[in-house]
Design a protein that fits this description.
- The complex is a heterodimer of chains A (about 280) and B (about 425).
- By secondary structure, chain A is α/β, with parallel strands linked by helices.
- Chain A has helices at about 10-25, 50-65, 65-75, 85-100, 110-130, 150-160, 200-215, 225-230, 270-275; strands spanning about 5-10, 30-35, 45, 135, 140-145, 165-170, 175-180, 185-190.
- Chain A contains nine helices and eight strands.
- The longest helix of chain A has 20 residues, at about 110-130.
- By secondary structure, chain B is of the alpha/beta class.
- Chain B starts with a helix and ends in a 14-residue tail after the last helix.
- In chain B, α4 crosses α6 (about 185-210) and α7 packs parallel to α8.
- Chain B has helices at about 5-15, 90-100, 115-135, 150-160, 175-180, 185-210, 235-245, 275-290, 310-320, 335, 345-355, 360-365, 370-375, 390-405; strands at about 45-50, 55, 55-60, 105-110, 140-145, 165, 220-225, 250-255, 325, 380.
- In chain B, α3 links the parallel β4 (about 105-110) and β5 (about 140-145).
- The chains are: A alpha/beta (about 280), B alpha/beta (about 425).
- At the A-B interface, α5, α6, α7 and α8 of A face α1, β1, β2, α2 and α11 of B.
């Protein structure tokens, strides 16, 4: 058996093409890497071109054998699991060899690590439905999150339904991706850099009110930081209004105030981004 | 007084209410309305305060003026605190702006009794009407029905809110007489009965007419204070069970009494709130609602209170050795649920997984079974966990040791090595 590693462009279609190519070339990759990942070049590596037609053929076959497996494939691809590609490859390989019956057993060694990763993804998405915080930036709601998994596709439905008449965006710092929404239309697209504009006076006022509510509602006699940490791990707190210092809520009083580093001229970045949105290719609802 | 100050005072007065849930109602987004209520079973927690309790609703009082003088309450007439009141518009604005920023799932509106129960309810209804009709708020609203108010007002409140609650607070009539002389058992139970009946009626109507108005679609809940009176756990759980059976309550909340006042009839101020006891009662409450237990089963013949070192399910399992061991590959769902360490989710997973072949002991952990508890009570294909030896006494100490790590506070007996 020849040791071979595959390299692809990081998209879901690209990954499916890796599976396609491995069957065409009759070889089993020992690892599948995303282009740009640092990986040890011990073994010969080969770059797989993405071909939408090949990808669709692979995905249709998987869904035909088991819709559940198709679902696993889509969701596990969004997780932060290390080497998820090779785990998914083995799942598909086994599915094609044995048929879908092994998927019924949750403790199966091929399936279990993937299910654990998916649970982590869904759990994080569920928590972020609550922990995400919007700021009102001149009528546009803006938010930043820093999740481990790629949760935006899972959050899209929830937030677009809830704030259906608002214009909003959610920026994912980890994956440099943003969800934009205007009434009736929403789009997910890559966004390499973004920094929130400082709050205006009304926004600062509501942040202060919320922080005060949060601090007041705790019963001092029952204080329990361990319990709080279990339910609300510290890694979420960086982007949550109530855990920021009240001094950060001050609006820059005069127009001459120095903008935060990275904020272009104090204007709110989202306005420009939303303005340019209709010209983005593939901005379908 | 500005809104910030009002919010501080009225949150401070409302914080002893335990209920903060946003589950049970599912209302999709509508054009022209703000927001929706999510249909997930678990609700949505937006934050957790320093005491570890979930914050999902903006929990405030309409006013903390009160004509009553309940001994245990911070808002009693005789207490010297600052009093204030929200105007309906202030509160609506606040709710909407918090909701837009995804701080909250909705509003939890309660109130002290200003002038009379009816007058207070009218103020609350005015606020909710403004919020629902003018601001077109479509999110979750939990409203407190004031005991002693007229049925017409409760009817109106139920049509505006998702969930209603009437707090029983003191679990026995004797406690009520001594600590809350202005309230009677009848005045508390009458609105509860009305809400139950009206809710059932609305459900029936909804089956016949598609646009029939919904009355408190997320049902009703109540709260009991634990530790202010001498009521036993058995008494509290019997009461809870009665409420679930007869009044179809969605939830009963327990609130460990935090001493806020020096009074001859109440625990002294330096007494710590009985948090562990509250925790055990919640565990037992889950056993009643999801695990098919009855309140009487959980206590031995002469037992009135829980052994605080053990969770109620382990306590039951130890006193009923005739049920065990349970065979994981053949036992039915109800039997699996009675095993300590197996919950609703893991029992369902076991049922699903064993269809494709016999389960082995090592696989159970992957299905979410807590083996440090379950190992003593399970066999897989007739075999127990390999190398496990225990007697009745070591079983008890083993279960207590398994529990000790996760206790909310350092209580329980120190285990000796020898």
């Amino acid at each position: 058996m020849k040791e071979i590693t595959y390299c692809y462009d990081g998209s879901f279609d690209g990954f499916l093409c890796c599976i396609f190519e491995s069957y065409v070339r009759k070889e089993i990759p020992t690892a599948i890497f995303c282009d740009g990942d640092p990986f040890p070049a011990l073994f010969p590596s080969c770059f797989i071109e993405t071909n939408a037609h090949h990808a669709r053929r692979v995905f249709c076959k998987v869904k035909y054998l088991s819709p559940y497996a198709g679902n696993i494939l889509q969701r596990a691809f969004l997780t932060c699991m290390p080497e998820k590609e090779i785990f998914l490859y083995r799942l598909v390989e086994r599915l094609l060899r044995e048929g879908p019956s092994f998927l019924r057993r949750q403790t199966d060694n091929t399936l279990y690590p993937l299910l654990t990763a998916i649970r982590h993804l869904q759990n994080e998405a569920h928590l972020l439905k609550g922990f995400l915080r919007f700021s009102d930036l001149n009528g546009v709601l803006g938010s930043e999150i820093q999740p481990k998994n790629q949760v935006l596709p899972l959050l899209q439905g929830h937030f677009c339904a809830r704030y259906h008449q608002e214009r909003f965006f959610i920026y994912d710092r980890t994956h440099h991706q943003a969800l934009f929404h205007v009434p009736g239309k929403s789009v997910l697209q890559p966004l390499s850099f973004f920094e929130m504009a400082p709050p205006d006076s009304q926004e600062a006022h509501y942040r202060l009110l919320w922080k005060r509510f949060f601090d007041t509602v705790a019963i001092r006699e029952r204080e329990n930081p361990v319990c709080q940490r279990t339910h609300l791990p510290k890694r979420y707190r960086g982007t949550m209004t109530e855990f920021q210092e009240a001094t950060e809520f001050k609006s820059p009083g005069s127009p001459a105030a120095v903008p935060a580093p990275g904020v272009p001229g104090g204007i709110s970045a989202p306005e420009r981004l939303l303005g340019s949105e209709p010209s983005v290719p593939g901005s379908s609802p | 007084m500005d809104v910030l100050e009002k919010l501080t005072i009225l949150t401070d007065a409302a914080k002893y209410d335990a209920a903060c849930t946003s589950s049970g109602a599912s209302r999709p987004a509508k054009a022209g309305y703000v927001g929706n209520t999510t249909s997930t079973v678990s609700g949505c927690c937006h934050s957790f305060s320093a005491d570890g309790r979930c914050i999902s609703l903006l929990k405030v009082l309409m006013t903390n003026f009160c004509v009553y003088d309940c001994k245990y309450c911070v808002n009693r007439r005789s207490n010297d605190t600052r009093r204030t009141m929200f105007t309906p518009r202030e509160l609506s604005e606040l709710t909407l702006q918090f909701y837009r920023r995804n701080y909250i799932e909705g509003l939890f509106l309660s109130s002290g009794v200003l002038r009379s129960p009816d007058y207070t309810m009218e103020q609350m209804i005015k606020t909710l009407r403004l919020l629902r009709e003018e601001y077109r708020f479509n999110g979750y609203i939990h409203a407190k029905a004031i005991p002693g108010s007229s049925p017409e007002l409760i009817e109106q409140l139920g049509l505006l809110a998702d969930r209603l609650s009437v707090n029983i607070e003191l679990p026995s009539e004797a406690g009520l007489r001594s600590l809350a002389p202005d309230k009677t058992k009848g005045a508390i139970l009458a609105p509860m009965r009305q809400i139950t009946q009206r809710n059932l009626q609305a459900r029936e109507e909804l089956m016949k007419y598609r646009h029939a108005p919904r009355f408190a679609p997320a049902g009703q809940s109540t709260q009991l204070i634990v530790g202010a009176t001498a009521d036993s756990d058995l008494h509290i759980l019997r009461l809870t069970q009665g409420l679930y059976d007869r009044y179809r309550l969605k939830r009963v909340f327990y609130s460990a009494y935090v001493p806020v006042v020096e009074h001859a009839l109440l625990p002294a101020r330096d007494v710590k709130p009985p948090l562990l006891r509250e925790h055990r009662l919640y565990q037992a409450d889950w056993l009643l609602r999801f695990y098919g237990f009855r309140a009487e089963e959980l206590f031995g013949p002469q037992q009135e209170n829980f052994d605080l070192r053990l969770d109620p399910k382990c306590g039951w399992a130890i006193t009923h050795p005739e049920f065990f061991p349970v065979e994981v590959n053949t036992a039915d769902y109800e039997m699996l649920l009675r095993v300590p360490g197996i919950g609703v989710t893991s029992a369902r997973r076991i049922l699903r997984a064993r269809r494709s072949g016999a389960l082995r002991m090592e696989e159970l952990k992957k299905l979410g079974v807590v083996m440090k508890r379950a190992q003593y009570f399970l066999t897989a294909s007739g075999r127990m966990t390999q190398g496990l030896r225990f007697s009745r006494e070591s079983l008890l100490s083993g279960l207590i040791a398994a529990e000790n790590a996760s206790l909310p506070q350092a209580e329980g007996v120190q285990l000796s090595l020898f």
